[in-house]
Amino acid sequence: MAAPHDLAMPPGADPAALSQYLNRAHDTFVTTGSADPALRRLVRESWRRSVAGGLDPEGALASIRLDEEALGAIRDAHPLAVGMPVIRRLLVDSAADAGLLVAVSDAAGQLLWVEGDGALRALAEGMHFVPGADWSESSAGTNAPGTALALDRPVQIFGPEHLARQVTPWSCSAAPIHDPDTGAVLGVLDLTGGDEVVTPQSLTLVRATVAAVEAELRIARLSPPAHDVLAPVAWTLPGLDVLGGHGATLRHGATTTRLSLRHSEILLLLTESADGLTTSELGVALSDDDQAQVTVRAELSRLRSVLGPIELASRPYRLATSVQTDVASVRRDLADGRLRRAVARYRGPVLPTSVAPAVERLRDELHMHVRSSLLVSDDADALLSFADTTHGRDDFEVWERALSILPATSPRYAQVLAHVERLDDELG
Prior knowledge:
Elements: H1 15-32, H2 41-52, H3 68-77, H4 84-97, E1 101-106, E2 111-116, H5 118-124, H6 137-140, H7 144-151, E3 155-157, E4 171-178, E5 185-193, H8 200-222, E6 239-241, E7 249-252, E8 255-258, H9 261-272, H10 279-286, H11 293-304, E9 312-313, E10 318-319, E11 324-325, H12 326-335, H13 339-345, H14 357-375, H15 380-387, H16 396-405, H17 413-427
Helix pairs in contact: 4-8, 9-11, 12-13, 12-14, 13-15, 15-16, 16-17
Protein name: GAF domain-containing protein
Organism: Aeromicrobium wangtongii
InterPro entries: GAF (IPR003018), GAF-like_dom_sf (IPR029016)
């Protein structure tokens, strides 16, 4: 059963009245940057994340990143290709009859399949809701597939809860699809259309289809086909993104996966260690309690199954393949004086839900590095870009620094002053 905060339209709600309220709240946010506290928290936070990443709510269109050749190669290699017959049987056929669309993305938010009603597909092309388009929050703003990826949980977005203006006539329900063995996020299943797709029943149907797909993946691995559909078809320098997400996103070749929290922690710590880590060192880094070495080894064994061509060497454990991380990119931008770029990359703290001691230290070090660079800066735009995020919203010193360098004629001066005064009152 869906939790109340997962539902965009609670039972008994009037869609017309809700749409009118949301349109007013959307206009206010776009004009002033102020989000109505009555909005669902996931919507408020998603709007702020999107704007902090530089998205223009009035003009944004999802980027189309994959041409036909690249799209075909990724589809052929993607683990979710195994689940498409199940999705078509359980969801696409009925969605087409009902005048709806079904989309499947990879773990980076790139749409791999968009199927369903032909007339609606043609209409959706106008907002770039097409295979090959990037519907992550950073590209398309608040939307069910992108926000489901950002939160790693089922999400419904109703009409004007979308941030990009061109998407506000649409509604959608989406849920992440996980690897049944590792827990890594493989992609998202989305149902898109009108008001009817944000009912509790629609979200239940999407989640049930996701469960069937995950079961199909498990069955397929018990009797693998002669050809390996999981093999990547291209090689590019691997990347690991750990900022602001519940789990890391790993990219290698044509494959993008969202790792479980434990695997995210292990892989991040290995990228940070030039000399590698022993089993006992990893145990200490991951927990204040003594981790049984056999437990750590088991996690490392499972991690290997999602690393693809990335080589994990042992004795000590280390990455024999170079992996670029967003943590290193932020550090590099700060060292080179590219403060605005560093703030844009810094989507949030390192694996914010992790309680691994070594990750907590890394999280604190990077956050203080970004923050201290801002506090000695005269770049008001960089300061406000950080201040407007969920991780900067209550940072009194950052807001106070922004106020001290903003000219009184700035259109944001009054809003920043009011926010500083509010924080000052709250902090006593």
